[in-house]
């Protein structure tokens, strides 16, 4: 009887153990399935996040970000204004003809180069100019040329600049690429423009015999369709006006070389 009871007890214990093991196995299975599901979900979120990334570079702490230069409104306005040429402009400068005493014999007949640069010199130096001063300064320049260049002759832009360098301390520029707007631009900045010209093409009725074959004059202003000059070739040359195209057509190099205009600046 005892043996039967013990056998039954053992069977019950074994069943309990099996039930516990089955429960443990079920719990383990549920845990494993849960872990797999969680990992798959996290991986999907990571993939979704990566697909949303932009192409912008990731900066390290050592990287520096350069800032765009700030734009100064006043500088922009100044630059824009610098490109705008006024409709009219006039430089105030004194005048005296190349024959200050009305004598058109030599050397006065061919003293237009000297007279032109002397007028610009007195403008730049802010000094007065009259007939007496013009006569004395032309005489000095002519005498220097005779002593150093062997005579008094027509001068190209380049040669006139060399004469300027002997007497004055100005910066000079000979310009070969020019047009109406180029000349107006310099004038509007207060820079007179000196023009070597064919006097006969200027068509000035105050010239003798239709004008000289070679001449030089100063452009000091402009209006809607004319340049305003100080033309030393006539006593009526102060503020004398020539059409834009007349000036351009008259520009000449007495040697037949490249045509040019030139400037003096302080």
UniProtKB/TrEMBL annotation:
Record field: transmembrane: 16-34
InterPro entries given in the database record: Peptidase_C39-like (IPR039564)
Domain Peptidase C39-like positions: 97-232
Keywords: Membrane, Transmembrane, Transmembrane helix
Source species, domain of life: Bacteria
Annotated protein name in UniProt: Peptidase C39-like domain-containing protein
Species of provenance: Candidatus Berkelbacteria bacterium RIFOXYA2_FULL_43_10
Lineage: Bacteria, Candidatus Berkelbacteria
């Amino acid at each position: 009887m005892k043996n039967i009871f013990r056998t039954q007890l053992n069977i019950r214990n074994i069943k309990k153990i099996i039930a516990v093991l089955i429960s443990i196995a079920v719990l383990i299975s549920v845990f494993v399935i849960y872990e797999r599901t969680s990992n798959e979900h996290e991986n999907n979120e990571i993939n979704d996040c990566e697909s949303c990334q932009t192409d912008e570079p990731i900066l390290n702490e050592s990287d520096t970000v350069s800032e765009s230069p700030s734009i100064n409104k006043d500088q922009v306005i100044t630059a824009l204004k610098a490109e705008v040429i006024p409709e009219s402009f006039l430089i105030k400068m004194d005048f005296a003809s190349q024959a200050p005493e009305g004598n058109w014999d030599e050397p006065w007949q061919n003293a237009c180069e000297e007279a032109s640069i002397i007028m610009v010199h007195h403008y730049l130096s802010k000094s007065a100019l009259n007939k007496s001063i013009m006569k004395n300064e032309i005489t000095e320049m002519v005498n220097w040329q005779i002593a150093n260049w062997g005579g008094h002759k027509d001068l190209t832009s380049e040669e006139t600049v060399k004469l300027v360098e002997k007497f004055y301390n100005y910066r000079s520029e000979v310009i070969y690429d020019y047009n109406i707007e180029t000349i107006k631009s310099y004038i509007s900045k207060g820079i007179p423009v000196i023009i070597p010209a064919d006097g006969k093409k200027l068509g000035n009725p105050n010239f003798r015999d239709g004008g000289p074959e070679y001449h030089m004059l100063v452009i000091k202003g402009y209006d809607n369709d004319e340049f305003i000059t100080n033309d030393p070739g006539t006593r009526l040359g102060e503020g004398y006006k020539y059409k834009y195209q007349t000036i351009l057509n008259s520009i000449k190099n007495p040697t037949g070389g490249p045509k040019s205009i030139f400037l003096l600046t302080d």
